[in-house]
Design goal:
Two copies of one chain form a homodimer.
Chain A (H helix, E strand, L loop, with lengths): L16 H16 L6 H8 L3 H7 L3 H11 L3 H7 L6 H7 L11 H9 L5 H23 L5 H22 L4 H15 L16
Helix pairs in contact in A: 1-2, 4-8, 6-8, 7-8, 8-9, 9-10
Chain A binds a DNA duplex (30 and 30 nucleotides) through helix 3.
Amino acid sequence: MTEVEKGPKGRRRGRGARERILSASQQLFREQGINRTGMDQLCAAAQVSKRTAYQHFTGKDELVAEYLRRFDPSVLSGVFDRTDLTPRERLLAAFDVPPTTPLCPYIGAAVELHDPQHPASQYARDYKKAVAARLADTAREAGAADPEQLGEQLALLIDGAAARTRVLNADAFPTAAAIAAVLIDTAIPATAGDDRRREEVSS
Amino acid sequence: MTEVEKGPKGRRRGRGARERILSASQQLFREQGINRTGMDQLCAAAQVSKRTAYQHFTGKDELVAEYLRRFDPSVLSGVFDRTDLTPRERLLAAFDVPPTTPLCPYIGAAVELHDPQHPASQYARDYKKAVAARLADTAREAGAADPEQLGEQLALLIDGAAARTRVLNADAFPTAAAIAAVLIDTAIPATAGDDRRREEVSS
DNA sequence: TGTTATGTACACCGATCTGTGTGCTTACGG
DNA sequence: CCGTAAGCACACAGATCGGTGTACATAACA
């Protein structure tokens, strides 16, 4: 994301069209959706000739898949890596999404593409599973009785908030966070590795 | 759904093309999505001439909106009207979706259309609010401390299960039901309208 | 029976979509 | 400075999209 100069194959050649294409994808696919964004418009926004785009990507499908792969997962990794928070706080922090966040592109892609076999759909599936797994890890760290279950539950809450926000056009994450708090308190024995014991996980 | 003979305006004229169109919409929009279903294909499936379709609907947008309005809400109303269940059981029954259910068309429409102003998007919003309201009513009946909050929470769980099922291609409703059980038990004072000892601890 | 709403058949429109073919320019690295 | 890979401009192909125009058929009801 930060590096715009690295060429496609590592060798620094040309003027980094690929990065511009992916950058434009981020913006347009999220603003307008995938199906409503044509390659012409995308190339224009990226200031890249259409020919060049199709030299970097065999087709729109591949571009969409790469767009999902490149989607900045800062919300995710940024939360799980915060060592200044207790595991329990980290679980809750996953619901602190700035209200400006457009909305989960993975759900959008899965719905828009509508084909579970599509590479992007498969990646979306993998990503969602990975999130649940990381939540489960953190839940285990927090001392949850059944970390896998709690992880899956919290993941469902996040997706619910995302979907509901999209449909209602109103932020649903606070509601999800409230549910999460209940679930976490229920699943974690009161005595377990909780707040004040700032479990330094020692990096 | 059952009646195919009723004409568009009540008077029985012609051969009920409108119903066939809407019936085909139900199938195709859900199987393939809205954007991936062309009017040509839809008319062919409905065995209706394209001209006729555009005499009944001013455009695809109107058809989509009507498709959502006509979507059989049996899952919803069928649950809330069951007087054989206690309010608490009714709240939980909302998560007993047969695994064959294709998946919430309202979320699909909102994502695919991608325009909050689209009539179908507006209807989806209204519908989701109505569901939350009915859940809140039932929650009140069940003696919940904060029925509105519980209704909104359960609605979010349903949407989460729907979205997650779509992305993961695996039934997520059991997980949502488990969360719902926790929320309900937390929100309803033990002594409240939790009708006589019908408490079935099925899980 | 005749009138009229309803539906049909089918060609056709312009727009837009993904994707190519071709020939030219430019920047970079040796 | 030169060769080559990267990128560009732009027309175009073929499909599909939503939507219409026109002329004809038929079913329902008076």
